[in-house]
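thread: overnight batch results

M.L. [08:02]
morning all. the overnight job finished for the chain we discussed friday. pasting input first so we're all looking at the same thing
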Amino acid sequence: MPSDLLLFHAYRLADDPRERELMRPFPPLGLQYLVAWLRRAGRTVDWWDATFAASLADFHGRVAVLDPRVVGLYGHTLTRHHALPMLERCRRSGRRTIAGGPDPVQYAELYLAGGAEVIVVGEGERTLEALLAHLERNAWTWDWDALRHIEGVLFRTPAGEVVRTPERALIYPLEQVPWPAREHGDLDQYLKIWREHHGETALSISTSRGCPFGCTWCSKQVYGDSYRRRSVEDVVEEMLYLRTTFAPDQLWFVDDLFTIQRKWVMAFAAEVVRRGAQIPFYLVGRPETLDREMLEALKGAGCFRIYCSAESGSQAVLDAMNKRTTVEEILEAGRLLRAAGIELGVFVMLGYPPEELAEVHATTRMLRTLDPEIALLSVAHPMRGTAFYDAVADHVVHPPGWEARNGSRLAFRMRYPMAFYEAAQRQIHTEVGIRRKLARREIDRELLGLVLKWPAWRLAVEGLGHWPGRWPAQSAARPTSTLPTFRRERRR
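M.L. [08:03]
and the structure it wrote out:
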């Protein structure tokens, strides 16, 4: 008997060289949430995880076995050029096709032309449930007039009219959403990869949805400016379930804003201790929200690392990003974390206008002061639907060979040649690696290699930094990381 729905994405670890350096993959929680919601509603739903697939062609074998009436794609900028042909083939075979996620909304014309019949706009659970009910009522075909009354969808009628219906109200409270549909068969490969490369395992967990802040480069196509948080009791109960069922060595809280509600954080830490639910975990915190008492509470609950979205050591760049934080607040967060005995990770973005060589040097100085255990670096790239894209839209370019290296991620004419930003990443990567090795007293061949490389990267940055202009991006702009700090970390 055909299943109702097969969900899929087109991200493969084998196609992502930078992630293969890290080897810290996590299952796609978004798809797992959808599966859990729809199964609770009585739907037969499966999902195909491409992360470890030998080939994306394996997807069509899965389709043949499950014979779903509907296929649903989670669309992402990096995978669009792979995913659309997969969706189009399903549509040609007579299956109904739906796309969701931020990229299909930003590039609706491409998705509607490339295989998607209907695009889900915003939060997916209730809208997808409504679409499946609609199809079932209509013998698994679309009633285009009736679709106009389903909130949160975008589609093109047979007459060529593009219709976007009113937004659907967001789910509140979030306890209505069941926990992600995690199953051993889906997680075994993830746990195996972690164990082989790091000597431990990890799973991800979410406590909230949305973000009320307005960073100019951040896409908010799914949740908008909303911010909703699960109850402390529900989160801790899920932690206990994960520990009992899968026994991970650590948890990664995927929330961008874990620390912004101080009262919630303090209650969470107290409940973890009260229930004996301590599992080593790490999270992202806004620098200006951290204080000594909160960090002591999180440390007692099992927190061993906090990532701060530093982005730049230049206040001018932070202000241009509308980060609503200061360099001094970032530095103070580093001091507080060090005093609390919690590791510091930082996110840094290079190339965001008006950054010039002086701002890159300011970022390097900030990192020297922070001395983070991990620095994750990236080069700025615009996404449709963001203020950053609007600001640089006239400078978006399509260099030859770019898509093969970067998927459908956009490039724009930057202040310096891309080789400058690559060299800056490598310089920072090398310097942080040296400092970490010395802090651990790891005097070895790897340290010697880093010491020998650092002057070359520094000279490259200085030399290329004297050629300002408007340069098209020329090579990959994905994150790099301080790889020496990832070597077999143990958090027992």
